[in-house]
Amino acid sequence: MDTAVLDLIRRSRRVLAICHVGPDGDAIGSLLGLGWALKAMGKEVTLACADPVPPFYRYLPGQGEIVRRPEGMFDLVISLDCSDKERLGDAYREEYHALPLLNIDHHVTNQYFGTANLVDPEAASTAEIVFLLLDELGLPIDPPMAQCLLTGIVTDTRGFRTASSTPRVLAIANRLMAAGASLPEIVSRTLERRPLAMIRLWGQALPGAQLRGKILWTEITEAMRAEAGLTTVDDGGLVNFLLTAEEAEVAVVFSEKNGGQEVEVSFRARPGWDVAQVALSLGGGGHMLASGATVRGGLAEVRERVLALLEESLAAQERARRET
Ligand code: AMP
Ligand code: MN
Ligand code: MN
User: Fold this and answer.
1) What is the pTM for the complete model shown?
2) Which pLDDT score is estimated for 324?
3) Which ligand is closest in space to the CA of residue 285?
């Protein structure tokens, strides 16, 4: 492992760790797992996320300590699960921009924006990279760390079902369980649970699903969300569900937000395709098989523009495949 990374951590005393806006299980899990570890090393730690912790991650030990806007001064900032600096949101305040920044991430679209970068696109989750870092530092894993890190792994692999679920992932999960993490509790809290309002929202969004070539897409309007009684912009995994359609190679969900001024776009693909580059070209990022972007504009206009770009990209990928 890069000695610059280890040196930054070893020398730091007051650390600010930040995960991405609109946090998922890997963002919160890697943030808390690292937070517990840094405390065990005797450091002063502040954990931050610009958006609130979603209710179903509130079983995680330490989540109550995560602040939305950090206060005070630090000697190191650590970014977790962010492909670019913008993903840190308002938690990365202006006055922290001059501090050393350690970028820990697994997105293939990562911009290497840190003073030091611990980036592994082969890793299934940022939590997995944090685990390897703690191993390298020789820090024993306690049950709270284990529970947080395994949550990151389980949620980003949707319960070890993604193409990213390698033998290394399972070996690390094994060690985290041996250290006290509960796999059944994590699965039941995260993958097997959603608000009834989310199921009602799916009920509204599913009839509008349309197949365009090999792309299955649907949209969620702000009116649907209000009707279902939801305030967050996530789709509760609807885009993964769409991709289970036999006819689909790629699935997309368009979610209207900010009073119709922006659209959150979520892409998923079956192995063999790449949706990371389209997301990147729209100012977002992600992985080959799961990516996203926030696009300015109205729902219908953004949808047509993005579907056209995506069709073009898939056609180019097909051509490239035929040529090799
Ligand atoms: P999602 O569809 O929100 O579950 O996101 C899928 C993947 O794309 C995750 O790895 C996210 O980190 C990434 N992603 C989603 N939205 C954005 C965005 N606006 N900017 C950069 N990356 C994103
Ligand atoms: Mn994430
Ligand atoms: Mn992740």
Assistant:
1) 0.97
2) 83
3) 1
